[in-house]
Amino acid sequence: MGELRLIPDKFQNKQRKDFNTETTCIELTHCGNFVIIGYSSGDLEKFNIQSGIHRTTYGPPAHTAPVRGVAIDNLNQFVVSGDGDGIVKFWNFKENVAHPIHKIALSSGVSMFRSHRESAMVCIALEDFTISILDCDTKAIIRRFEGHTARINDATFSPDSRWLVTASMDSTIKIWDIPSSYMVDHFKVERPCVSLNMSPTGDFLATSHVNHLGVYLWANKKLFNHISLRSINPYSEAPYIDLPS
User: Fold this and answer.
1) Relative to the CA of 89, which of 36, 57, 106, 194 has its CA 20 to 30 Å away?
2) Alpha-carbon gap, residue 93 to 104, rounded angstroms
3) Phi, psi of 235 (to 5 degrees)
4) Is the pLDDT of residue 107 over 90?
């Protein structure tokens, strides 16, 4: 454990001090053999996990702004990266990595990526508090959600990729129905949620919150009762709900 240091030759610093470049995002391949790391310098590098050997440098460099998000498809065919200037690029995973195969310019800088590999969709949280859904198969933005009024901390897809759940520093958690492009539920909590994830069967949502050490579980009522979901104005006041006890 901890024997390998994944540092490209150009970032080597024998004294381990005065680092000018920081790691800003990281993504592991589905097979578990490789990892791709994005840096504040705009560089995008691929390493072998088992040996720690540096395998690929994408672009010269990949971006001109800090890399904020990285996603990889299930079959290791392509890599998607996004930067602080709002530029999203597609790269071949193995060969011809000097230039991207496709580019998309977004309305604001990228804050983070969250991917659902089975459906080839990527949730892109932007610095203007909006959310874009990227379809990696068509290489196009297919949905855009807005309603949060502060930085988006985390997002997760439901197992069937029908819903997207997002959490923001405005202390709200919102649920978006991707096929209909509607927000179907939202609520406000005591402390902003900083991390969340859904269970593999979609029956529970786990959240963690600012200044709270515990992990809180929320039940998905739609699996236990017949609930008719309707469109909700994303800018309407979210009802306050106490954290589970």
Assistant:
1) 194
2) 18
3) -100, 0
4) yes
> Where do we find the tokens 């209909």?
180
Mean pLDDT of 143-152: 98
**CATH code of the domain covering residue 50:** 2.130.10.10
Residues 56/45, Cβ–Cβ less than 8 Å? yes
Give the pLDDT confidence of 12-49 residue by residue, as tens digits. 765 555 567 899 999 999 999 999 999 999 999 999 99
Residue 127 lies in a domain: no
Question: Which of the four pLDDT bands, split at 50, 70 and 90, describes residue 106?
Answer: very high
Please say which residue of 109, 136, 163 terminates a domain: 109
pTM higher than 0.85: yes
CB within 8 A of 76, min separation 6: which ones? Answer: 29, 30, 31, 34, 93, 94
Q: How many domains does the chain have?
A: 2
CA-CA distance, 106 to 111, in Å (whole number)? 12
How high is the mean pLDDT of the chain?
93
DSSP string, 173-197: EEEEETTTTEEEEEEE-SS-EEEEE
Domain span including residue 160: 147-244
Three-state SS across 15-48?
CCCCCCCCEEEEEECCCCCEEEEEECCCCEEEEE
